[in-house]
Amino acid sequence: MASPRKSSSLGTRGNRTSKTRPVAAKKKTVSPGVKKVSAPVRRRSSAKAVISRRTTPPRKRFVTLQKYESNPIVEPRTENFWELKATFNPAALYADGHVHLLYRAIGGDDMSTLGYAMSDDGVTIVGRPDAPAFAHKTKGTNPLVSAPRINYLSGGGCAGGSEDPRLVMIDEDGKIYLTYTAFDGWGSVRIALSSIAKDDFVNRRWRWSAPVFLSPPGEVHKNWVLFPEKINGKFAILHSLSPKILIDYVDDLSEFEDDAKNIKSHYSRFSNVDGWDSWVRGAGPPPIKTKLGWLLLYHAMDVRDPNRYKLGAMILDADDPTKVLYRSRIPVLEPEEWYENTGWKSGVIYSCGAVVKDGELYVYYGGADSVVCVAVADLDHFLDELVRNGMPRLVKKNNVKMKE
Predict the structure, then answer these.
(1) Would you identify the CATH topology of the domain 3-18+54-399?
(2) Among the listed residues 222, 216, 224, 225, the one whose alpha carbon sits nearest the alpha carbon of residue 259
(3) Model pTM score
């Protein structure tokens, strides 16, 4: 059985009441032999990727969370029916020296499935099979009988399927867990969970377990995340950020089989009326364990700047992640580039995956509900700025020096 659910308000921004000191910025070395590359317009390339980054700290001390200059890194392929309309909102996992992505794909039948892509350096795609890696299978109930039709449209995938995946690897049981939004194309939108052995996943043997539902029937939920390690010996599922953080703890995920157990959640759109995130949408990628606590990126909108999805950041207490220690006072990513404003839904940045590789934070996100993009920051610098003044921030590309 689950232990009692804990909750906490989202706290103040960029401030901390304890005496924890800011993290010192890490010195970076410049690797020789990296040349500047011009950003092409909507092309795929197998050429070696180059990420531009600062050689000195910016004057305003905004951290470099920089969009890769050759975004997007994954685009629809018209030769594959299942992904010819859109490829976006990727989950991300770093394992065995590679970044593994599971991205949402919409095909010619408006069905959503999950495609796979792999990168060695975090930005250049070096492996992308022609077949889907995962497809949600329903039990074949007649939607006309089982439930009334609901008004739900997400990213153009009106026929249902698997949407907005998240991936975590829990080392102690050797499994990789996938959570996603399961839509039956008619009257049910639920949070589902499946798993796969790590060896099968990295070798692209898609032997997924039968999915179970975390959320109850008859309700619409999105943006639930599983923590990548157990907390106090229990699986931790974060299922709401607004108006309070809600986390359920369970001993065994098999408790959800056959709908024997579901998580009751509560969500309110508006919790910070004066901030840039006056409309909190929900969690982005699964939390990342850092020296300060859990780094959680989250989706939000400003009621004064409607229809623009932005990304914020907060640090949650390592032992009790319902407590917010730090929170960004400004968005860490905003939809400003052409690939974030040209597609199925203009003005959207939507992240479902982030990894830490070689001390750098790679944030993967969907642009305009159409393509996969990535932004990169030095993790220590990012955390330092979040602690200091709550303003880790994207640096404009025309202000960024390239490695020479």
Answers:
(1) Tachylectin-2; Chain A (2.115.10)
(2) 216
(3) 0.81
For the ranges 58-72, 136-150, 222-236, the lowest mean pLDDT is seen at 136-150
Instruction: Encode burial over 95-117: b for 16+ CB neighbours within 10 A, e otherwise.
Output: eeebbbbbbbbbbeebbbbbbbb
CB 62, CB 379: distance < 8 Å: no
Burial 291-301 (b: 16+ CB within 10 A, else e): ebbbbbbbbbb
Q: Residue 101 — pLDDT band, cuts 50, 70, 90?
A: very high
What's the helix, strand, coil split of the chain in %, to 5? 10, 40, 55
Q: Under a CB-based contact definition with an 8 Å cutoff, are residues 201 and 218 in contact?
A: no
**What CA–CA distance (Å, rounded) separates 117 from 171?**
22
What dihedral do alpha carbons 385, 331, 166, 3 form, nearest 10°? 70
Residues in the chain: 404
Report the amino acid identity of residue 226: L
Closest by CA to 318, choosing from 12, 34, 33, 18, is 18
| Domain ranges within the chain, ordered by starting residue | 3-18+54-399
Q: Which two tokens stand for residue 153?
A: 């449209």
pLDDT tens for each residue of 287-325:
999 999 999 999 999 888 888 999 999 999 999 999 999
Which residue, 354, 349, 351, is CA-closest to 367? 349
Closest CA to 288 of 369, 220, 218, 229: 229
Question: Phi, psi at residue 107, to the nearest 5°?
Answer: -100, -170
Residue 314, both tokens: 């907060």
Distance CA(109)–CA(404), nearest Å, equals 46
Task: Evaluate whether 168 touches 177 at the Cβ level (below 8 Å).
Answer: yes
